[in-house]
Amino acid sequence: MFLNVGPAHPATHGVIQIRTELDGEIVRKADVEIGYLHRAFEKHCEEATYTQCFPYSDRLNYVSPLISNFGFAAAVETLMDLQVPERCNYIRVILSEISRLTDHLTCIGASAMELGAFSVFLYMVKAREWLYELIESVTGARLTISYGRVGGVKADLPEGFEKECRAALKKTREVLKEVDELLTGNRIFYDRMRGVGVISASDAIAYGITGPFLRSTGEAYDVRKAFPYFVYDRFEFDVPVGEHGDNYSRYLVRMEEMQQAIRIIEQALDSLPEGPTNVDPEGEIIEPDLMSDLGKYGKTSGLLKNEVLIPPTLQGSEKRYHDRVAAPSKEAWLPPKEQVYSNIEALMNHFKIIMLGHGLRPPEGEVYFPVEGANGELGFYIVSDGTDRPWRVRCHPPCFPIMAALGSILEGDQMADIVPTFGSVNMIAGELDR
Amino acid sequence: MEANITLQKIQENFENDVIEVHSRFQQDTVVLASSSLLQVATFLKEDPELQYNYLMDLTAVDYWKRKPRFEVVYHFLSVANSFRLRLKVPVAEPEPKVDTLTSLWPGANWYEREVYDMFGIQFTGHPDLRRILLYPEFEGHPLRKDYPIKRRQPLIGPKH
After folding, report:
1. Which in A22, A152, A296, B123 has the greatest CB count within 10 A?
2. Residue B152 DSSP class
3. Is residue A317 located within the same domain as residue A401?
4. Residue B63 in 3-state DSSP?
């Protein structure tokens, strides 16, 4: 029998169609059809300036948008040969790992729900909520965060972030323990997952699969270990590998990866460097609106030495902390808004980066920068022609090769196994279809 | 510096086909004549010292008004050695054409379909070369530089 699964089936996490040929309950052939969420990410990036690409990259993987933000930023930084400050790298690591947590929580929660374990979904989404609140406190948004910048991040961590983060991680650990007790030894869950959706290590490599999907087969390739970026080489963490390459191994790998992510975040919080602070640490603290008013009336003497305190999630970034999350290069980093409104140097600097026809201008060349996304290697290949817009931006989405292999993985399994297998792919249509 | 073994080996073995070699941004790059793509890819995959077991990414770039116009870009990875290599194959108009790598890496199948979809580059020997992200009735290849971003597509209705 010929049966369409999708494109609007509730168990297909994004819009995707699987055309199956069934023999009774057995899937004989499966043809995967993607592209329903194609938004021309790459074409739009060619029309936008480098700074304008960040909002587009938010929408690649909408469960862990920070990783794609930072990946894109790091690729452009490699092109421009920029070094970001220590503190910025630590912030990137912390937020990437929080994103990895949210991604895996969603993946496991959703696939457990599809197998009938609804409470697991609720527990995991509860934990994800705590982490989203953390992300919101830092970036001002839950999903469309646009927090990465070439040469830094938008703003420093807010006051009290460390304490909140540790508390959220502690609670998340408890949730993970709870879920572990509910699922790992659960007969129904085990029977549905074990031996289903099997892929061998050699097949996975031939398809170019990376991430938890690859590691479930026993191959330990992880970009964070093989090609350390940001400051991942400073932290101790293990790369969990599975044995069988089936859905159950992938579940176990993801569970363990979350523990490791928490471990990395805690180490990073322990050693989070303070970094250079602003020009005049003893400067008077004034209100930001007063500062920009003074600037507008031309009373600018000594104004740069003042500190301004506003929450980093508002329009500007907190000037007091600005220097420690930004590369010193003026060609890349946007000055804080208060300075833009109050002195001409910052205004010109802002103008040169933002306005069309000015903008960041990486030298001519091309670069491929891989980061470990939640689903595997997320690479950005950027070709610059020396103008303010990228000539070509290519995003290598981690779930693309997995979806390419999905058809052959499903063959021979039962019809009902499509749901857990597809769940363990953790397809994110945003990055798959771009 | 170790990774330059790759570049050396390719230069030694395929002297006549290599157009350019460089390592800008510490990323090894080989520009290669399209005729020997399949041989070089097989060599990379099967050489016991190099072991490029991954075809990590396959894409293309349209250098409009430059000749040859297109470049198909391959990113290889050797997990055993932690090497990465970028291989670029210039492809000229009209009828841009390059050999498929599906016989070596089945993962190339979808990547090549995407490149065909977006750039209209043909892959000779590809088992199933059709559009992947866009629909069959789509006109043109949108990542070509002469495809305007605001171009409208004709409306298509249900077939039956």
Report:
1. A152
2. P
3. no
4. coil
What per-residue confidence (pLDDT) applies to A279? Answer: 29
Residues B16-37: what's their mean pLDDT? 84
Asked if B124 and B43 count as a contact pair (C-beta separation under 8 A), the reply is: no
DSSP E strand stretches across A97-229: 148-149, 152-153
The interface residues of chain B toward chain A in range 31-50, judged by CB-CB distance below 8 A, are none
- pLDDT per residue as tens digits for the range B122-143: 888 888 888 888 888 888 888 8
Token pair, residue A160, equals 């009290």
Domain end, chosen from A354, A388, A414, is at A354
The C-alpha atoms of residue A114 and residue A108 are separated, in whole angstroms, by 10
ipTM: 0.89
Query: Are B25 and A79 an interchain contact pair (Cβ–Cβ within 8 Å)?
Result: yes
| Domain ranges for chain B | 4-124
**Residue with structure tokens 């400073």?**
A234
Percent of chain B clearing pLDDT 90 (strictly above): 11
Count the domains in chain A.
Answer: 2
Domain that holds residue A340: 285-354
A266 and A141 in one domain? Answer: yes
Inter-chain Cβ pairs, chain A and chain B, closer than 8 A: 90
Look at strands B83-91 and B97-99 and give their pairing.
Answer: unpaired
* Fold that domain B4-124 belongs to in CATH: Beta Polymerase; domain 2 (3.30.460)
Residue of B27, B56, B61 with shortest CB distance to A392: B61
pLDDT for residue A288: 59
